[in-house]
Amino acid sequence: MRIVWFLVYVICFVEAVKGRLGPGTCDSPESCDHRVKTLLSIIEAFGYPPIFSEIWQGHEPCNWYGITCFEGRITLVTFISMNLTGSISPSFADITSLSVIDLSHNRLTGIIPFELTKLNLESLDVSYNDLHGKVPQFRNTVPDTQGNPKIETGIIHVPSQPKIPVQTLRLATDDFDSNNIIGRGGFGTVYRGMLQDATEVAVKRMEQSVIGGKGLDQFKAEVSVLTKVHHRNLVVLQGYCIEGNERLLVYQYMPLGSLSRHLFHWKDQGLEPLGWSRRLAVALDVARGVEYLHRLAHQSYIHRDLKTSNILLGEDMRAKVSDFGLVRSIEEGRESFKTKNVGTYGYMAPEYALTGRVSRKIDVYSFGVVLMELITGQNAIDENRSGNDALMATWFKKMFAGKDSFTKIIDEPIEVNEETQGSISQVAELAGYCCAKEPEQRPEMSHVVTALASLVEQWKPRKVEEDSATDMEMVTRWKQQLDAIVST
Hints:
Blueprint: H1 4-16, H2 34-44, E1 67-70, E2 73-78, E3 100-102, E4 109-110, E5 123-125, E6 130-133, E7 150-151, H3 166-172, E8 181-185, E9 188-194, E10 200-206, H4 214-226, E11 237-243, E12 246-252, H5 259-264, H6 276-296, E13 300-302, E14 311-313, E15 319-321, E16 328-330, E17 336-338, H7 350-355, E18 357-359, H8 360-376, H9 392-401, H10 403-409, H11 418-434, H12 445-453, H13 471-487
Parallel strand pairs: 2-3, 3-5, 4-6, 6-7
Antiparallel strand pairs: 1-2, 8-9, 9-10, 10-12, 11-12, 13-16, 14-15, 17-18
């Protein structure tokens, strides 16, 4: 059972930061400690790691593990060798009193945010992570970046992704060897490859037969959109190739493949089935990615083809939305427009399928179907379900209306108990709202994010024993211990 102050965390951040940064320690938005908000924003970029349940307790951040203060102002943040994943948050720059940041010996990805150059840092240690991109220039210090083999490459998250020679991609994929095929689609084949700097990539090679038609439009759309949008829950475009008749897109490699693989083919492929907490976390990742497209990016976009096969899982099981070939931008202040209906039957909203009317709410509908698939482990279209029940949305709503029938359709690997039953029911109810017949009855993705964030299992701080050593002494001790481990 969550303790009272932990519930207050959630309320404060739903109001103060629209529920997107996670729980906080505040009595009201007005009294919300800005240090707490900033620190929780920082660990939000790490995905709220459970390890923080072991090291943070209480309302005073100066007493939190890894945090050092002087006269109530945070001066050091030291998260060393904590197995952290995710990215470095630009929110570090909001702690203007910071002089030392040490994130060494973790598994962080992404870039060193330019915003950190605003700080008057004496030390920035990001060594032994998996960072990439160019290192910003700091006023008083040179960051320690050793042990990041992709640092300085600058080919990810830059305004214009590089053109990559086709010969480089031939070498990376063993000349597009069939053994390296990891996926096929209507417009091309996807190969696993490895660049000369040992970066693993996924290379989408467009079929020659579609280069002059819709396939070329999709190619242009993906390059255009993915050079403008950057979010941890959207797939990363690392480059592209336009050479002769070749049209290729180079993406960040997602080693665990698509969500559909883990929902529908896990037995055939010898995979571990997804438990409920993992499915819930995936749903929140996807919701955040779509929310970013809809309202938080500089330009608003509608995905138009959200489905489980377009949701990819990284090694850390974090989800990213992919396949932006059908994306359409939408002008500010404009809620809908008409276009030719494209997408995938079973995920298409009724108004889009019948009239071609496009709004952000068609993505909400598709996301509702994805939630239903996460709960049932069944496909959006299943001919084994008779009549209109072949459509997931129709069948699911009918089964959810009956308590006994709903329990029977929950995917077998999901352990249904007192802890999970309520959460599953709430997600099922949310899925029904997302798949409402009328678009105006569906929630905004920001509301979906808030609803799911409140259900995802949160870490619970507990008290840890005090250490009489100063933070700088502890940093030195940890590094000495780590060096001893590495050298053995």
